Amino acid sequence: MDEQGLPTGPFEDVTLLSGGTQNVLIRFRRGGEGYVLRRGPQHLRSRTNDVLRREARVLSALDGTDVPAPRVLAACPDESVMNGAVFYLMTPVEGFNATVSLPEPHASDPQMQREMGLNAARALSALGAVDHAAAGLTGFGKPEGFLERQVGRWMSELESYNSLDGYPGPDIPGLDKVATWLDDNRPVTWRPGIMHGDYHLANLMYSFDGPQVAAIVDWEMCTIGDPLLDLGWLLATWPEPGDASTSLAGPLGDGGALPATADLVTAYAERAGAIAGRDLSAITWYAVLACFKLGIVLEGTHARAFAGKASKETGDLLHGITLGLFRRAQAFIAS
């Protein structure tokens, strides 16, 4: 911090926001300013440092845009400084996660809850409007052939689970039907841009004093791809009454005041710059792809549970969500 010219003095109000097996977040104050330090877990995974470097690069590129996201103040890609860990300092986010808690006035105001939902789509449209090349992210991802390789990539991932001891293979009704439909209906043209990669309500922080998105967080999956897949991901994970995935949306999902998925698409489309060169008439395809991809990702934990590498309870829960996602994919196709 001293080398970066940041305020000096003792470290104060040091608070661990998360840690353990997850990336570590520590909030503190120094020289009258607030900071959050982000680094990998104590026991680093093989790709942790590369992921942190990518996060810092994208968040730095978003500085100067109107995308609600933490701002990087200083990044250290050098692993030797902190015992092998890459880390960066960012601005604190004053907000709350609505899938964990819903404070007042949000909890008793259905109209505010509806606006929170619409603002999830609007915040995403702000990200979709960013020119990744102008932001310095040329070469950050591999957008060439991005859509074409998705089905094969994730079917191969599913096939790889068969190597886990005890896993009987995927029992996912509609799997082949959905995969075939995706291959047969792939959009012909699309425009590359910055993707968050895991865009859903649990990765949003909301303002304490209104329905605004304070920050999009957890950028571990960010890349350059087709930003409409982020919108599809939001639709795929959107709380629907009676759906197993609704449990993941917590109190905001339980409130029953969130807008319909069609309203999310309309809210996204309100920002003309976000959709130039992008065909929102194909949004059903992106929603189906998101259901397909996320369902296969979650099935991985189900498979690992058979091999004793995850609890049976968790494996069964996520398998149930996978089945729900494929039911939703087929409902999207039917519609």
TrEMBL record:
| Molecular function GO terms recorded | transferase activity
Keyword set, alphabetical order: Transferase
Top-level division of the source organism's lineage: Bacteria
> Which InterPro entries does this entry report, sorted A to Z?
ACAD10_11_N, AGP_Transferase, Aminoglycoside_PTrfase, Kinase-like_dom_sf
> In what residue span(s) does the Aminoglycoside phosphotransferase domain sit?
14-249
Q: What is this protein called?
A: Phosphotransferase family protein
What organism does this protein naturally occur in? Actinomadura rudentiformis
